[in-house]
């Protein structure tokens, strides 16, 4: 019997899948509408951002900035929404781009600030890598000068210099 695994990056019509003839042999990877009748597997993006905040706050950080790097997706929106909610009325969003340069743009914006946050949460590990590299190129040290937490748990995180703290 045929089966399907669907991994959308943007919203799509669940009814189309239910009419596809796969019956109950379809699993959707990533966020779908809450009332969907199809089984799905997804990351709890809000909880992940909450874990990043909890870690940073345990280190004494009170002003935490955010670098998306994945705007335009369910994942990006959920992580951004969670950040804004947890920022205690003081959101500092340094970039919302979707390309690999998001970390570099965020670093430039961070360096131009007079009242910088002491920590940054990156919406994904690749953005965190770009951010850390760009900060290092300008003489800032992570985590000595600013803490950075990524999100995804990529294996490269453990081999990056400095090792990236990441939500897995």
Structure, explained:
This protein has 168 residues and is an alpha/beta fold. Helices cover 33% and strands 17% of the residues. Strand 6, helix 5 and strand 7 form a beta-alpha-beta unit. The radius of gyration is 18 Å and the shape is elongated.
Short synopsis of the structure:
This protein is 33% helix and 17% strand. The protein is α/β, with parallel strands linked by helices and 168 residues long.
In which order are the strands of the major sheet placed?
Answer: 5-4-6-7-8
Alpha-carbon Rg, integer: 18 Å
Secondary-structure class = alpha/beta
Mean pLDDT: 84
Which geometry do the CA atoms define?
Answer: elongated
Order of helices and strands: EHEEHEHEHEHEE
Q: Biggest sheet, in brief?
A: 5 strands, parallel
Query: How large is the count of helical segments?
Result: 5
> Total strand count, please?
8
Strand content: 15-25%
Low-confidence stretches: none
Helix content: 25-40%
Tell me the span between the first and last alpha carbons: 34 Å
